[in-house]
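Lab channel / #folding
Pinned by the channel admin:
"Please post every new chain as: sequence first, then the structure tokens as a reply. Keep commentary short and put observations after the output so the thread stays searchable."

First post following the new format, from NK:
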Amino acid sequence: MVSFYIVRHGQTLLNSLDRAQGWADSPLTDAGKQTAVELGHKLKGIDFNAAYTSDMLRAVQTAELVLGENRSSSIPIKKDARLREWCLGSMEAENNTVFIKNVADWLGGASFAELNERLPDVADVIRKHDTTGMAEPFQTIEERLKSAFMDMAQRHGVGENSNILVVTHAFAIKSIFHLFAPEQLSKMGKVKNAAVSRLVSDGGVFSLEPDL
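Reply from TO:
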């Protein structure tokens, strides 16, 4: 059995400025570093066998702080671009209020709760209105995340139970819920910085426990 501890990175500079952040990257703030340290302390009783992050600075910094406080700093951090956040295209670094209003309007006036339940539509309208050509269709996002977790489960699922730290991003985490626990999306609000959920793979069957 493999237990993935899926963490959203700590607060970043763009987060503190209330800006949308996908492939745009920014470092952790002091508050973001502190919450990552606190999360590491919370997870002190877990012996991690491996750590994976997206290739974004904010995810790597968070993993380093969590592992340092968890006393697992000797574990190498493996960066995987498949764990990246959604690319928001021309909406990158836009004010969050404007970003959410635009997406809601594009979807005919959807509420925030409805956006969670319509993730494929959200990704696809972002792509439709993107002027950079970089935003991905939801199917591409879903496929890269699923392949990352399938590869990790296969790599670490032989022999004794394994605990894996995975640091990624808010929309990516919602996409993971869409993949493995879609019935929980309607109850899901904002994914907070340094929030952690546990995804268990047992014989190729995945189950998800939110908000540990």
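NK: Residues 2-209 form a domain with the Rossmann fold fold (CATH 3.40.50.1240).
TO: also worth noting, Residues 48 and 75 are 8 Å apart (CA to CA).
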